[in-house]
Design brief:
Layout lengths: L2 H29 L4 E6 L3 E10 L4 E10 L5 E9 L6 E5 L9 E6 L14 H7 L4 E9 L2 E12 L3
Length: 159
């Protein structure tokens, strides 16, 4: 076999390996890009929680945010949550609230293999995991005093 033929065969084989590896990695990346959104609002706040895969896909992350519906000067925010599977909470002192941008309040995981989320779940399957309303209770201080509101989050149906 001549050097030209060997070079052509080797080039073709390497090309096929690269194409195969690209397709495999692209499939893995796109299969990990699912998420489920829960959203709600109260008189002064909008809240949302996103559930998405984390790590190797056997765990999920819950990422919660709130956003004021009107401009306000908040000196402190205390939040409690009831997410059925976990209850993250905390206090933000002098939070930097940028108009129109959500304020992250938590990122947490219910634990390894504790809940079997996966890509392509329908609304009924998701609501069976969260069998009661997801609630944020927000207490904040501003120039007019202390206020408390509850935000009930509902699943935004997957499209």
């Amino acid at each position: 076999m001549s050097k030209v033929k060997r070079y052509s065969l080797l080039s073709g084989a390497l090309f096929m390996i690269f194409v195969g590896a690209y397709m495999l990695l692209n499939h893995f990346r796109t299969s990990q890009e699912w998420s489920y959104l829960f959203r709600g609002s109260s008189q002064q706040w909008e809240g949302q929680m996103v559930v998405r895969p984390w790590g190797d896909g056997s765990e999920v992350l819950y990422k919660g945010t709130i956003k004021p519906l009107t401009p306000m000067k908040v000196t402190q925010i205390t939040y409690k949550t009831d997410l059925v599977t976990s209850q993250p909470g905390g206090t933000l002192v002098s939070p930097s609230i940028e108009e129109g941008k959500p304020l992250p309040i938590f990122t947490t995981s219910p634990g390894h293999d504790s809940i079997q989320f996966r890509a392509g779940m329908n609304a009924e399957e998701i609501t069976s995991i969260f069998y009661r309303d997801l609630v944020y209770e927000i207490t904040w201080n501003d120039e007019t005093g202390q206020h408390t509101e509850k935000i009930v989050l509902k699943l935004v149906p997957p499209s």
